[in-house]
Known about the structure:
Layout: E1 3-9, H1 14-23, E2 31-37, H2 42-49, E3 56-60, H3 66-75, E4 81-84, E5 90-91, H4 93-105, E6 112-122, E7 127-130, H5 140-150, E8 160-162, H6 163-174, H7 183-194, E9 196-208, H8 215-228, H9 239-251, H10 254-257, H11 265-281, H12 292-304, H13 312-326, H14 328-340
Parallel strand pairs: 1-2, 1-4, 2-3, 6-9
Antiparallel strand pairs: 4-8, 5-9, 6-7, 6-8
Amino acid sequence: MKISLVIPTNRTSYSAVARVLECASLDPDKFQLIVRDNSESKDKERLLDEIKSPDMLRSTVPNRGGFENSIEALRQASGDYVLFLADDDWISTRGLRQLHSLAVESEGDSSVACLTGAYFVETATSTGFFQYSGLDSANAIDRVRSYLDANTSNYLFYSAIRRDRANFCFALMESLPYQFSYHDQFISLLYLTLGRTLQINRVVYFYDLGDWESAGGSLGKDRASYLGAGLPIEYDRLHWLLCGLEGAYLLKSQLLAGKVQFDTVPLANLWFGTMFGRFKGADRELDYEETAVNAGTLKLKNKWISHSEIDLSELLLDVCDVFEIADKPGAERYFSFWSGL
């Protein structure tokens, strides 16, 4: 039984290198270390060269973005489980050893998809602990409801997931027509749909909220993902509506139906209902320009925000019409992907 620790790294500080150094000290019979550095820093490369571990795979690559770095790092993993570590976070080596013991204990239980522990969360002004509840339920809808009820940052992304399921989830994310900031929540949604999460009662992961700790910082991150996709920030007005729509289509897809033995429609309804509630309550009306996209997204918002029942097929068509204002080929890809999933 082996857990692959996957570190897609870009930061050039000594602390980023220290994350690698700490993980390199783990038992190579139990842990594999994958380090993929796209910082393009020669100084960092020299420092990483000094770190030796019997089961470490390290590569230095051009910077093609964070998502590409994560996907390619995952492809190098060979452990039974994989656990991502951000290079601005920290991890407890003692917690990892206990997590490995849990992996050994539950090895024969195919209902288990994910392993994690408590999270130590740090902001600029405070620290605290967080631990999920209800994620070990045999009922997928209870697991997803517990995750949504937590209504917090997506800590579950940083947990140990069976590698075959991680590969399935990330391959699906790689195929999406656009890459938006909420897609990391789809990773956790899929983890919870595909199996139970077991937890140990100790901290494993130390999470620095960084820009996500404030509403302004989170908004900036979200809007950067639209700009990165070649779209103006006015599409951010539909952020949670898009998250609900795509998640519902994903849960109802034939692709996922081949992976589970239960009806996923109640899950889709739960996910969409929660995200639609966020859409109705979100205040994102800041710094939009008077453009055709602004008018189009506002019209779509005003059409749907008062609806109590949503026709997802009609909503998808409306969303594609709005995407077409700025990116006609992208709108066509978007419709083709989600309608055919």
